[in-house]
Every structure is written in C-alpha cells, then in structure tokens.
Write a structure and sequence with these properties.
The chain has 422 residues and is of the alpha/beta class. The protein has 2 domains: 176 residues, 2-enoyl-CoA Hydratase, Chain A, domain 1; 177 residues, 2-enoyl-CoA Hydratase, Chain A, domain 1, CATH 3.90.226.
Length: 422
C-alpha cells in the first residue's frame, strides 16, 4: 500500500470534508499526489508535489500521473489547483525529465482559457517547473516560497520579483485563497460562476473596489503600491465580477497588469467593471505602445464591460475605458466627475485665451470651463455617459446593469487572434 505523506494531508485539506478521492493511490514512491473532490460544492482536481520523495523531482512517472489529471479535468470541464514544491527534475533521466515538463506545459497551455488553473507555490519552484507553474491563470505564493528561472535561484524572492499575483502569509492562507478563487470563477469557459453571498474571507483592497463590492468578497491580484491600477475578483449582488480601479496616472506596468486581468476575465465571460479616476497616461518610454495595447485589450474583450467614472477621465484614457473603442456596454459617471478630451486647465487656456489676456481670474475660468464643457452632465447630454449617480448609488446601479448584461453574447470575425505590438 502507498504510504501517507504530508502531501496527502495537504491535498485532503483542499477539498470539502469527505469529498476527496486520490488518483493512482497504490502507485508507490511517486513524487506527486493527485486527486479530485469538491470545494464548497464545486468539483475540482488538484495535485501536490511530494518533496518527501526524491525532493519532489520531476520525471516520466510523475509527468504521466499529472497528464492523466489534466486529461480528466479537460474531459469533465473542472478546474485544477496545483501545489508546487520540487527541487527540480530527475537528473538520471536527462532530457527525458525536460520532456516531461514540456508535456505538462503543453497540457496547461491547451487548457488555458478553458478551465481555471491555479498554481500555489509552497516551496521551491525553479527553471522549467517555474515556467510550467506560470502557465496557470493565477499564481499564489506563500511569502517564504521560491519562484525563479535562473538555476542559481537569483531573484527568487516572491515578495519582490513580481512573478506571483497573490502573496500569502503561509501555505494555509495560500490554499484558502485558491479555494476562494475556485468558487469565484466558473468551472470552465462554457459555464457561469455560481451566485453566492461572498467568495470567502479574502482580504479587501484599499480602494473603491472594497467600498462597492459585497462584504468579504474581494480577492486582490498584484496588490502592490507601485501600481496606479488595482485589480480584483469580487461579487456585486452575489454575482462574480472582475474589478479594475484606475486611480492616478497610468504607467506601462499598470497597462500590462490590466491587460492580463481583462484577458483572464474575458476567457471565462466574467463581467469587467472598471472604475476610472485618471488624468491620463504617463508620458514615458513605451507609454504609447502600452496605451494602444490596453485599448485593444478592452476592444477585443467580448464579456460584459461597465465603466464607472468616479473622478477624472481625460483624453486617451476616456477612449480606452469608456469610448466606443472600449466596447463598454454601459458608462456611468459619479456626480461631480470631470470628463474632458484633454486636461481641463490646458483646454481652458486655449478656449478662454482672450479672457485670460484680458486679466480674468484663471481659477474662476477653470471652474466655468469644467461646469460648462467638462462636467458629467455635459458628457451625458452628448450621449457619452449613460447615467449619473451618487457614490452611494453605484452598487445598486451596477447590480441592475449586471442583471441586464448577464446573457450578453457577441459574434466575432473568424480569426485566430488580434495582433499587438509590444
């Protein structure tokens, strides 16, 4: 009989009590434990690399067991949680060990956008194993885990290298977050996420997302103070949504973060709600390409898209998130928001140039320009904004709008994919 290792206990802890079934459990001395069960009633597959046997080394035997898991998940349309903890490949298998990673990467890529794949980095995850792990949709790492490419382990600190989207205090928190994501996401790209009161006890982020979303439902991704943009999965009125909050000048790194998140939401038809409070894009190297790529990401996404302007929306940023190019299904503005084709002060200096030369007060002229030309009301009169609400009314408005958009279907041109210049 197969021995019971710590990896078995970790795998059992992922699933609802009594629902876990181990796959190939009579196979001895295997460096991975696989199985299936339910998480809050949602069917799911999972694996845990068993570092207690040969350091969790990858080889043909381990890969065959994992390939079987991927194939079962594909057939049944169920998500996968993987817990990574391995010191590398079986050296004695040479290139055969590398080929094992190749098979798994191919399987993960085939299922990308078909079933949710969540990677939990428990211990060491380097080189080929790290590439395989980062093929997942969401990467969660315990803060003391190591995730790296170089064989020396250089730049392996997960709290600094940005390779994981979520950093957890420990393995228990990482697994709990993974379980919350399973409940927040659909089982596959042909099903809808379950309606629920909350995702779980996930931590809230410090922005408008936390104020608007159902209490306790927010799961932030790439939570880093260096970003002007925040992204998170959450619920509104029990419905699962992806939420983006842009607050401040948009940098290239913000664009990349949002592009990745919008792509994930679109793959599983999760509505995207974008909160916009920005004076535009950062005027720096690579900004133009990043702005164009972000605008294309919104244009390409066919899932339900709602834009909420809760402050400023100037120039190209308005075009990206709320203009016709974005394909937004609804644009809502919070009362008092400022919406302008360019920075209002610069526009005022052009429009009211003669009055400025005549000595009129610039502050008074700016207030007049915003009230007459750059207000939410002016944008609504022109048909650029669908509705104006107070901040207290946002959640209720979003709930009604989501109810109407839940059945959205879009037919696209027959093509493989859009081309983006990076």
């Amino acid at each position: 009989m197969a021995m019971e290792y710590a990896a078995n206990g970790i795998l059992k802890g992922i699933f609802d009590e009594g629902s876990f079934t181990e796959l190939d459990k009579l196979m001895e001395n295997c460096e991975v434990v696989t199985g299936y069960g339910s998480i809050s009633g949602c069917p799911c597959y999972a694996f845990v690399q068993n570092v207690e046997i040969n350091g969790g080394a990858m080889g043909e035997k381990q890969a065959a067991k994992l390939v079987r898991l991927y194939e079962l998940a594909e057939k049944t349309g169920c998500p996968i949680i993987g817990v990574y903890d391995s010191n590398g490949g079986h050296i004695d298998e040479g290139l055969g060990a590398m080929q094992s990673y190749s098979k798994l990467i191919a399987k993960a890529d085939r299922l990308s956008g078909v079933i949710p794949q969540i990677a939990v980095i428990k211990g060491a995850c380097g080189a080929s194993s790290a590439i395989w792990a980062l093929c997942a949709d969401v990467v969660i790492a315990a803060k003391d885990a190591k995730l790296f490419l170089d064989k020396s382990g250089k730049d392996s600190n997960v709290t600094e290298n940005g390779n994981a989207q979520i950093i957890a205090e420990n393995l228990d928190e990482a697994i709990e977050t993974a379980k919350n994501l399973i409940v927040a996401l659909p089982s596959n790209n042909l099903s809808a996420a379950p309606i629920a009161d909350a995702v779980g006890n996930a931590c809230d982020c410090d922005c408008i997302i936390a104020k608007i979303a159902d209490s306790g439902s927010v799961i932030p991704l790439n939570k880093n103070k260096e970003y002007s943009a925040k992204t998170a999965f959450a619920r509104i009125g029990g419905m699962s949504v992806g939420m983006v909050a842009v607050d401040g000048t948009i940098k290239s790194k913000d664009c990349k973060k949002i592009i990745s998140f919008v792509g994930l939401c679109d793959a599983f038809s999760i509505p995207v709600i974008t909160f916009v409070n920005t004076d535009g894009y950062c005027d720096c190297c690579g900004a133009l390409k990043s702005a164009a790529a972000l605008t294309k990401a919104y244009a390409d996404a066919t899932t339900a898209k709602i834009c909420v302007i809760n402050g400023k929306a100037f120039g190209p940023a308005f075009l990206t998130f709320a203009g016709n190019a974005s394909g937004a299904d609804e644009v809502i503005a919070v009362k008092g928001s400022v919406i302008s084709p360019m920075d209002p002060e610069a526009a005022m200096n052009i429009v009211y140039n003669k009055r400025i030369l005549d000595g009129e007060d610039k502050k008074a002229l700016l207030d007049e320009y915003i009230a007459n030309e750059a207000s939410a009301e002016k944008a609504a009169m022109g048909g650029y904004v669908g509705d104006i609400v107070t901040e207290d009314e946002i959640a209720a408005k979003l709930t009604i709008t989501l109810d109407m958009l839940i059945s959205k279907r879009v037919s696209t041109l027959d093509k493989k994919h859009a081309v983006t210049i990076l």
